[in-house]
Amino acid sequence: MNIVTLTLNPAVDKSVKVDGLLPDNKLICHSLQHQAGGGGINISRVLKRLNVNSTCIFTSGGDNGKFLNQELMSSDITTLPIKIQSWTRENLSVVDTLTNLQYRFGMPGSTLTEKEKTTIIKTVSKQLLIGDMLVISGSLAEDISANFYAEIIRSLATKKIKIILDTSGRALTETLKENVFLIKPNQRELAQLAGKEFLDRHEQEEFAKSLVQAGKVHYVIVSLGSKGALIVSKDGIHYQTPPSAEVKSTIGAGDSMLAGIIYGLLENESPQNILKWGVACGTAATMQEGTDLAQLDKINAVLKMING
Prior knowledge:
- There is one protein chain.
- The protein has helices at residues 39-49, 62-74, 114-127, 148-154, 169-175, 187-193, 201-213, 253-266, 271-286, 296-307, and strands at 3-7, 11-18, 29-37, 55-60, 78-83, 89-96, 101-105, 133-137, 162-166, 182-183, 219-223, 229-233, 236-240.
- By secondary structure, the chain is of the alpha/beta class.
- It has one domain (3-307): Ribokinase (UDP-N-acetylmuramoyl-L-alanine:D-glutamate ligase), CATH 3.40.1190.20.
- The strands form two sheets. It has a nine-stranded mixed β-sheet, sandwiched between helices.
- Strand 4 (55-60), helix 2 (62-74) and strand 5 form a beta-alpha-beta unit.
- The protein is globular.
């Protein structure tokens, strides 16, 4: 099965440390890191560490876009950058070493012309054959229609592609009008999808079950933050709590989790074991500093703790 990841709102993720975050002062930063970032890009990075190859499609503008491609190619990831006029954005995370608190700054996404949107749709379709998997992950820039992901999926209707979707807000609502295999909202995103501010545990389970029973999706995986995750499918409901670990950064934890879930699917694991892989990869990501994502040795160590 060919796996394609799609990132329409990528970023060069910068992370630094500051020894005391104070207003109005000139702050001296250190421990600077640069990484290729964005939902599908992060997923391709972690899949590679799990010895799974994917084709990583992303929009690329200016020198930042070139940097993304260079970083991914240096990790032996197959890339397919789509050139756009707007520059690829940068995101910044700052850790205050005195409090160990992390501050994250997300910049506005790149705009897309109608011609660029058409190129994206054609490029994605060209890379996928019948029965392949498309991983759509990340937000859409503010000026892009919420139904653009749905438009991409409609263009693939005859190919019976397995769509893995990780987005939020109206983009999630609109895309679920199409044939989707798996979604991975967090608790807030699931509540928004249900048209509510908050769902308790029972309500989360019932709403996720309703999506599966209605045939909108085969798997619903809900990220529960520090409490782990739950998976809902026709086989029932399963929870997985993570083992105790020192959290150094939460950047990319959700993307790492989804990479683990995809690995479990490819290995034809049971829903419960699919969730274990996801939680293991998500937890392993939090054990890394900055934007380093889940490393294989940490993933294996967490799996051992989960399995006892």
